[in-house]
Amino acid sequence: MTVFMPISSLTNYNNVLLEVDNGKEVVLTKNGRSKYAVVDVETWQYTTSILRFLSDMKAVDEEMESGGKWHTHEEMLQRLSAVKDLLP
């Protein structure tokens, strides 16, 4: 669940961090618009790992579509194993 708070909430940052500790993402707003996101490190690491994986898969797909190297089932399983431990 995402909680929206004005950036002025940082004056009492403990309240912001309590929301994050409770498993929520906090979006800080400035002038009524979303500006920053605060998440716990585990969520951030998971998200960045998934983005790297998806970027890698897109590169493989583009390589294959342009007539480049096709990857074996084993090669793809090896790429998947790099992120399988991160999945919930």
Instruction: Report strand %.
Output: 15-25%
Termini distance?
Answer: 16 Å
Name the shape in a single word.
elongated
Mean pLDDT: 84
Number of strands: 3
Integer count of domains:
2
Low-confidence runs of at least 5 consecutive residues = none
Cα-based radius of gyration, to the nearest Å: 19 Å
Helix content: 40-55%
Count of helix runs: 3
Strand order of the largest sheet: 1-2-3
Q: What structural category characterises the helix and strand content?
A: alpha+beta
SSE order: EHEEHH
How is this structure best summarized?
With 88 residues, the chain is α+β, with helices and mostly antiparallel strands. The chain contains three helices and three strands, in the order E-H-E-E-H-H. A hairpin with a 2-residue loop joins strand 2 (25-30) and strand 3.
Account of the protein in words:
This protein has 88 residues and is α+β, with helices and mostly antiparallel strands. It folds into 2 domains: 38 residues, YefM-like fold, CATH 3.40.1620; 45 residues. 49% of the residues lie in helices and 19% in strands. The chain contains 3 helices and 3 strands. It has a 3-stranded mixed beta sheet with strand order 1-2-3, covered by helices on one side. Strand 2 and strand 3 form a beta hairpin. The longest helix has 25 residues. It is elongated.
